[in-house]
Write a structure and sequence with these properties.
CATH class of one domain: Alpha Beta
Order of helices and strands: EEHEEHEEEH
Number of helices: 3
Shape: rod-shaped
CATH architecture of one domain: Roll
Distance between the termini: 106 Å
Strand content: 25-35%
Helix content: 10-25%
Number of strands: 7
Length: 183
Amino acid sequence: MLLTLTAASPEIEDFVIELQIDSDATFADLHQLIRQTCGWGKAAPSTFYVCDERWHRERTIPEDGYEDDTMEEVELGDLLEDEGQRLQYVFDPDEGRALLMEVSRIAFGKSIGQPCCRRQHGEPPALVLVREEQPKRATNADLLAALNAAALADDEEDDFTPSNDEGFEMDEIDPEGFDFTEG
């Protein structure tokens, strides 16, 4: 049985690949086909998830593991039996990035020697997400030091010493000219 799988990226709108692979191939074979098609080298361990029609994960097929069957052990035909069946291929587990896949066609009685990419549109997402450098977040100690420095600067400016900068001489001030009333 020949499976045709369509994969798209939720982060790149115009990226779509269509892969063909035999149902007796393993998830490891599909994993290698995806990596080859997208031009990705080896990176963090990837995982397939068989999903329901709402993309809820029902079955995990890890690259390596102890409790679940691994990609090397599970054949595609064991879990992919219907057109429209959905998968997620998580290629960046740290960021939760994945390709969304669907069995778009099943050809009974047909086989293909070598798995292949039948069609590709657009550029695949980068294997590693490059984030813009975030500005350094100030710690409480940094904020306290800045406040202390500002307070010290204010104290220095608040010291009043009469001088000629004000445009008058201290001995020119007539204290009797000020009306102070006690009351």
